[in-house]
Amino acid sequence: MNKLQDELTRSFERALNNRKARQVFNELFTRTERVMFAKRLAVIGMLSRGVPPHVIAESLSMSSSTPERMSIGFDRGKYDFVVKEALGQKDFWQIIDSVLSGGGWMPPRVGGKRWKNLDKIIYKENLSKS
């Protein structure tokens, strides 16, 4: 499993070197997975600005467990590199605004089938495009 994870990382590094990371990311992950990653990045950005985990959960329509867990890691310095390198010098609040105004793409907070509605929306959108 470690070798597979290493290869995933190397694949992204190769794509970044060729300026193809977006295409690789979009082909490799479903829209639902990309939303999940975007939310996690938004959590880190909001934590870096001092936003409390319960406010993050509410604003990103998430269960409280993920922001709470990530807050503990953030306090221990777990996401320092993400804040420094991935968030860079951009105004992260603009990115968060775009995530929050995702046009109804945000799935419900909790429940075993919380992604089901999002998957249906994406399926219908893809069906109408084809």
Overview of this structure, please?
By secondary structure, the chain is an all-alpha fold. The chain is built from eight helices and no strands. It has one domain (30-129). The chain is 69% helix and 0% strand. It starts with a helix and ends with a helix. The mean pLDDT is 79.
Strand tally: 0
Whole-number mean pLDDT: 79
Along the chain, the helix and strand elements come as HHHHHHHH
Q: Which segments are poorly predicted (pLDDT under 50) over 5 or more consecutive residues? A: none
| Quaternary class | single chain
Q: How many individual helices?
A: 8
Radius of gyration: 16 Å
User: How many domains make up the 3D coordinates?
Assistant: 1
- Distance between the ends: 36 Å
Strand content: under 5%
Main sheet, how many strands, which sense, barrel? none
Helix and strand composition category: mainly alpha
Brief overview, please?
With 130 residues, the chain is an all-alpha fold. It has one domain. The chain has helices at 2-17, 21-28, 31-48, 53-59, 65-75, 80-86, 92-100, 116-129.
Layout of helices and strands:
Blueprint: H1 2-17, H2 21-28, H3 31-48, H4 53-59, H5 65-75, H6 80-86, H7 92-100, H8 116-129
Helix pairs in contact: 1-2, 3-5, 3-7, 4-5
